[in-house]
Amino acid sequence: MKFDPAQKLYELKQFGEFGGVNPSITDSSTYTFLEGETMEETFQGHMEGCFLYSRHWNPSNKYLADAMAALENTKSAWITSSGMAAITCALLQLCRSGDHIVTSVTTYGGTFAFLKNWLPRYNIEVSFVDITDMKQVKAAMQPNTKVIYTESVTNPLLQVSDIPELAKMAHKHGAKLMVDNTFTPMIMTPALLGADIVVYSMTKFINGKNDCVAGAICGTNEFINQLSNVTEGTAMLLGPVLDPLRSSGILKNLHTLHLRMKQHSKNAQFLAEEFEKSGLKINYPGLPSHPQHELHKKLMNSDFGFGGMLALDFKTEKNANRFMKNMQDAGVGYLAVSLGYFKTLFSCSGHSTSSEVPPEVQKQMGLSDGLVRFSVGLDNDIKSTLEKIQQCI
Known about the structure:
There is one protein chain. The protein is α/β, with parallel strands linked by helices. The chain folds into two domains: 5-251, Type I PLP-dependent aspartate aminotransferase-like (Major domain) (Aspartate Aminotransferase, domain 2); 258-391, Aspartate Aminotransferase, domain 1. The protein is built from 15 helices and twelve strands. It has helices spanning 5-10, 36-43, 59-72, 83-94, 109-118, 134-140, 163-172, 221-227, 234-238, 244-254, 257-277, 293-299, 317-330, 359-365, 382-392, and strands at 76-80, 100-104, 125-129, 145-151, 176-180, 197-201, 215-219, 282-283, 309-313, 333-335, 344-348, 371-375. The strands form two sheets. Strands 1-7-6-5-4-2-3 form a seven-stranded mixed sheet, with helices on both faces. Strands 8-9-12-11-10 form a five-stranded mixed sheet, with helices on one face. α5 (109-118) links the parallel β2 and β3. The longest helix is centred in the last third of the chain and has 21 residues, at 257-277. The protein starts with a helix and ends with a helix. The mean pLDDT is 95. Keywords: Lyase, Pyridoxal phosphate.
């Protein structure tokens, strides 16, 4: 059965407390109770719908959490103050000292640093693999493996994870599959493909404005309740709460996501096809030449295209920097990290968002010194943008 995340969001009814078409914004850090017994029951997690303290739950974050759960077709969700907070809280909730994680070596630099440098401090072992090679994944699994972690489409090499096969592998070994879907909201629905937990940096496409930092964790009611437990929940105890005003803004932006993703994808597809015709070394899942093109087609919700992320390889950092400066001067977009913005953003991944990955590992995974990652914007005249880019090469 075809899943339409945009329609699922559209059908979600959320009214403000005075009947407003937008939910009211919570301006309180703490909440009153009519009886002391009710407060105690809420602390123990037994009072559904009661709010205790904003670090635990607040109405604005709950509205956004419900919308994210609808988008991802999960039972529940939790809102965090950053994408990294979503990743770290979810992994720390799943793993304890002595446990093991299998992960893609190609992943966001901050995630790589957390997995490689931080978790070993707590005796949590991590094995890095080529996530597109199921033989490597299988060989890395251990009796104490608790999580397989990957990105739907990896950052920055745009490899496509075979989520159904990874889910089978994880579940066969009693582990969970956790998927970062930041690059492909609406395009892929990992929970329908077998993922147990889906995480986001909502800073990117979800919000789309680059005016805040936020994250989300989507999963079962049981897992979200564990995260928010007042005595053992990592999201509760580590405290990465998002400000309610930001939650309200993201919720409103979320309802234009389907339009934005279609335009990001349309523009990226056009540029990728033209770059390939020009003989440039282009990486984009929407091209038949991409190694996982057919897999992406099989996994995707086809109405939303192949996404707004593409990469061009200029071989050296010097070439990449010259090209990016020329593009910024020509008005193509901005030389900046992050993605999902209405303007095109570009950066040299090995020297920016993947700089936490050691040079020898970058080389091993195939990350060129001159790889330029594009987050293609919402340009109305993409042909004009192409002409500007061609003059910059």
